[in-house]
Amino acid sequence: MGIDRVRWGIVATGNISTQFTHDLGVISTDAVATAVASRSQASADKFAAEFGIPHAYDDYRRMLDSGHVDVIYVGTPHPQHYAIARAALQAGIAVLCEKPVTLTAKQARDLIAVATEHKVLFAEAMWMRTNPVIRALFEDLRSGVIGEPQQVVADFAFHKASLPVRLLDPALGGGSLMDGGIYPMTLAHMALGRPAEVKAVGALNSDGIDLNVAMAWRWDSGAVAALTCGLRSQNPWIASISGPDGSLQLPHRFHHPEYYLRTTASGAERIDVPTHGRGYHYEATAVIEALRAGLLEVPVLPHAATLEILDLLDETRSQIGVSYPGDDDDLSG
Questions:
Q1: Which residues pair with 250 in a beta bridge?
Q2: For the domain that residue 97 is a member of, what is the CATH number?
């Protein structure tokens, strides 16, 4: 793209969009938020005033038609991702969409096909993949410092007396798996690729929302993973990748850490990696670099990984009995 600053449109004005837009300020020489869309004009106006955004809309379609944006960031609840992203791609506007990028792998495959057809960049906002600490850890892993990885252990569970409504509403894609479980799954997939076997058990409430999930994965190499997520316990949110020569361990909030631990026969060493901001500007920067290079996908946020994780989410939901309204709907033509 022959422009100095990439113009971002923000879809939705909740917490995740707020964090992302704050971080665009970290890379202000490369990015600028020029428009915001919400379901209400009042919400859009308030968000625009907070961040100095010149254009505010009560309908994302008006923003797409405005000519004011090069790429949109979609921070809505999961079930709204598909329609918004599809409309943007058809309009020739690049998309960075929050994880999980769609409710099903079928929807994601359709979006990638639309992006390819219209020659537009499309990416899932799995910010963990772009975190400098995570990237350094995987460089360490690839160097062979712990040998061939054989075990991945990761948990992502939390509990609050009053959980956000979206987490307990099937119509909003609620549950622990889609909101938090995707992080342990992504870490294991990054370490070992797609597993040969997936087993899952879960505890659901009366509305069919998964409150606790445990997953066991196996690879043909003999490697295994033990992954959990939930909405009913205060887990440590830690993770480790282990091999015959040691382990690489991520501390609390492993999906956006400030350091990791390398343990080998030489002892334990803390590896600090400089980070700044809230962590969302790393994915925004990756998108900007891909746009300027004329790419249709972001190298660190590959389509293939997005699809394989969604395939695994589909399989896990099937095994534990979680379904959402519209799961079987035909896709737009």
A1: 239
A2: 3.40.50.720
What predicted TM-score, i.e. pTM, was given to this entire model? 0.96
The token pair at 208 is 């069919």
Task: Domain count for the chain, please give it.
Answer: 2
Residue 168's CB is within 10 A of a number of other CB atoms, namely 15
Residue 223 CA to residue 245 CA, distance in Å, equals 14
**Which pLDDT score is estimated for 4?**
82
Q: What whole-number distance in Å separates Cα of residue 285 and Cα of residue 96? A: 11
Position 321 in a domain: no
CA 318 to chain centre: 21
Cβ atoms of 85 and 60 closer than 8 Å: no
Residues of the chain with pLDDT under 70: 1-3, 326, 329-330, 332-333
Q: Using the 8-state DSSP alphabet, how is residue 54 labeled?
A: S
Segments forming the whole domain that contains residue 86: 6-126+279-300
| CATH code: domain of residue 239 | 3.30.360.10
268 and 153 part of one domain: yes
Q: How far apart are alpha carbons 285 and 71 in whole angstroms? A: 12
